[in-house]
Structures are given as structure tokens and as C-alpha cells.
Amino acid sequence: MNYELVTQFIKQTFNTDHFIPLHEPRFIGNEKAYLNECIDSTYVSSVGKFVDQFEAEFARTVGTKYAIATVNGTAALHVSLLLAGVSNGDEVITQPLTFIATANAISYIGASPIFVDVDLDTMGLSPQSLKHFLEQNCDVVQHKCINRTNGKIIKACVPMHTFGHPCRIDEIKSICDEWHLALVEDAAESLGSYYRGQHTGTFGCVGAFSFNGNKIITSGGGGVIVTNDEALAKQAKHITTTAKIPHKWEYVHDEVAYNYRLPNLNAALLCAQLENLEKFLTNKRVLASIYERFFADTTMTFVKEPENSHSNYWLQSILLENRAQRDEFLTYTNENDVMTRPIWRLMTKLDMFKECQHTDLHNALFLEDRIVNIPSSVRL
Ligand SMILES: *Cc1c(COP(=O)(O)O)cnc(C)c1O
User: Fold this and answer.
1) For ligand 1, mutation pick of 70, 77, 94, 99 (most atoms within 8 Å of CB)
2) CATH class of 3-28+277-347+357-374
3) 274 band by pLDDT with thresholds 50, 70 and 90
4) Which ranges of the chain does DSSP label H, i.e. alpha helix?
5) Interatomic CA distance for residues 282 and 287, integer angstroms
6) Which of the residues 31, 45, 178, 296 has an alpha carbon 20 to 30 A from that of 348?
7) How do 144-147 and 112-115 pair as beta strands?
8) Residue among 189, 214, 270, 343 to mutate when testing ligand 1 (max atoms within 8 A of CB)
9) 186 within ligand 1 shell (Cβ under 6 A)
């Protein structure tokens, strides 16, 4: 395979001979203006108008009633799981092909992940694998899903929309409803992605997004929890802000909680970034069609959005023929100033999670050997 041709093509597409990162942020709007305004106001920290403004605008963008900003996406996931009722000793079903934060957030609570397989086309949690696991191993007893193999309660299911491509979230939701599992979406990568016209992250009781530096929009670091449930929204705000009871001067906190609030400074950056989301999304879809046409004439397969969905194409990816080819491709491109990365090592292969229960992971193993991300930044 001619990796040189691919490297040349990517350099031509990004119109440079210099190093091309996998994904870099773009600050082309009101970022500096809002940051200056924030500094001039002195409200750079845990209160300020940009946090409120961002929360309102984000909720409108994804179509939920509420949005609660957090310090990062992992914190948003951690709190989302608490809101879904997950507690110490419970179990939570997720996919093994994900960024570590998904499994970490489950572990922070003292719960254990169970890994079910992904679908080949979406790279996200497979409803078939989920259903099969539940039918083989679980019983519903008094509205609770009990894992027969250890007697533990499975409280929730956390599918993830890999690289922004929506998984079969409607099927997953109906299985979760049937088995009394709370649905918590890890939508960290999928801002701007829709499944059958509905924004990802809004199908379950709560959803979590990330605004880390490599995501489609960034606040440096940041995250958000979305929900349509007023009680959950209030609880989210409460436990991300040290559970302080509002009072003019008294320090009264009614539970052990978290300092997970997004600083106003980061929210200022995020308000400006959100204004350009549509522009970024359009730009990424143009890049996807350029890549798609190019890779059609190669032995590599460009990964397209799955059916019934509209993807943000956050990280563009290709499928190589086998692991050896993948490694050759990674070596060549990275040695020639084109940053590429393999998909994540499966969670079930990491020391912390290798004892966790899992299904047959046929598809996850197949994709782990073959998927590579290629430069995906917005070209402006
Ligand atoms: C980025 C990401 C998160 C959250 O990451 P933070 O860096 O904590 O904002 C969670 N899950 C997935 C799948 C991610 O890609």
C-alpha cells in the first residue's frame, strides 16, 4: 500500500508541508472579546454571567430543558451516573471500545463496569449484544435488574457515540426501559450529531458532553450535563457546587458533594465557540466527503456516518486491512509529520478492568486492530 500517497494527499488537503495535528481548536470568533470582558468584570471563577449564558444556549442547541456546566467531561459523567442512581457496589453496562473516562467515571462511584460488544458500523454499543447479555445473565426482580452471576444490581447502561457517529440509541433505550436500566449517554464526542433527527445525549435520563481541547468545541477544559428532568437538573447543580444551601452569608452544605463547577473564564471561551458550531460542523462534513472520495480508490475504507444518523465527524477515521497494516500506516504517517492515532486499547485489556465481566467482543476486537484516526481539524 502506498502510504506516501495518503500522506501527500492529507498535506495537500490541509494545504501545508508542516506538521498536521490530529485535531486542533479554532478560535475565529468572539473568544478574545469575551475573555477580556470576563477579566475586566473580575468574575473569572465560580460565578458569572457566561456560565448562565452558556447553559441556556447549550440547552437550546441540543434541545433539552436543562444544561449544567462542569469542569470537564469526566466530572459530567461521574455526576450523571450519580443522578441515575448508581451507587457503591452496583454494576453499569458500557462498551469496551471507548476512552478511559467512561470506565473511570463508573469506578469513581465504587461501581463496576460490564462490557458488551459494539456494532461494526457505528463503533458504539450494540443493542443486540446488550439484549443477549441481559437475557443470558439477568432477571428483573421488583423493578431491578439483577445480575444472576453475582447477585449485584445493574443500575445503568452507558453507550458512547464513537468519534461522533451515533450508536443505535433508540433500540438501546427500549432495551434499557424493558430491563429497568437508567440510560446515561456518554455524548462527549458527539456535539452536533443526531439520531433520527434527535440530538445525541438527549435520549436517556441524563447525558454528558466534554469540551476538552481536542473536542469539536473547547473551553480549555469543561463539560456539561443535560436533562429534561427538573429535579435531576437541580440535583446536578447542587452536587457540582459543593451542595451549598443558598444564603447571604452562612456556609451550610447538606451533603458531601463536589467542586465541579465550570469557571466563568472557561464559560466565556465556550460561549464564543458555541457561536461557531454550525460553521465547524459544515466544514467537517466537507472534509469527510473529500476523504471519502480519496479513500474510495485505495485499499483503506473511510468510515462513514451510520444510517439514520447525522454525524459531526469529530474525528475522521479509516479502516485498515489488519493490525500489521495499521502499524505500518501509523509509523509512516507519524514519521512524516501527519499525526494519526489508533482507536483505544479495549478497556478489557487494561489492568484495572481486565477482571470485569464481558460478552463476546468480536466486533470490538476487530475494530481495535484496524481503526485509525486521521487529521480532522476544521480547515479555516
Ligand atoms: C473526551 C471524552 C470524555 C471526557 O473527557 P474530559 O477530558 O474529562 O472532558 C469522556 N468520554 C469520552 C468517550 C471522551 O472522548
Assistant:
1) 99
2) alpha beta
3) very high
4) 3-13, 31-41, 49-62, 73-83, 100-108, 127-137, 169-178, 230-240, 264-275, 277-295, 323-335, 362-370
5) 9
6) 178
7) unpaired
8) 189
9) yes
Pairing of strands 138-141, 144-147: antiparallel
Q: How confident is the prediction for the chain on average, in pLDDT? A: 97
Cα 376 to ligand 1 centre (Å): 17
pLDDT for the residue numbered 229: 98
User: Could you state, in order of their start, the residue ranges of all structural domains in the chain?
Assistant: 3-28+277-347+357-374, 31-275
Q: What is the C-alpha separation between 200 and 156, in angstroms, rounded? A: 17
**The CATH number of 31-275 is which of 3.30.200.20, 3.40.640.10, 3.20.20.70, 3.40.50.970?**
3.40.640.10
Cα separation, 273 vs 262, in Å, equals 15
What is the atom index within ligand 1 of the atom nearest the CA of 215?
1
- Taking only the tens place, the pLDDT of each residue in 3-56 is 999 999 999 999 999 999 999 999 999 999 999 999 999 999 988 999 999 999
**Mean pLDDT over residues 96-100, rounded?**
98
pLDDT digits (tens, 9 = 90+) for 222-231: 999 999 999 9
CA neighbours within 13 Å on the CB side: how many for 308?
A: 12
Q: Which amino acid is at 278?
A: E
Query: How far apart are the C-alpha atoms of 290 and 221, rounded to whole Å?
Result: 30
In angstroms, rounded to a whole number, what is the distance separating the alpha carbons of residues 128 and 171? 9
pLDDT band for 1, please (50, 70, 90 cuts): low
pLDDT of residue 46: 87
Site to probe by mutation for ligand 1, drawn from 212, 219, 314 as the one with most ligand atoms within 8 Å of Cβ, is 212
Give the DSSP letter of residue 205: S
Crossing angle for the helix pair 49-62 and 31-41, to the nearest 10 degrees: 140
Write out the three cell numbers for 80.
450523571
Sign of CA dihedral 340, 281, 13, 289: positive
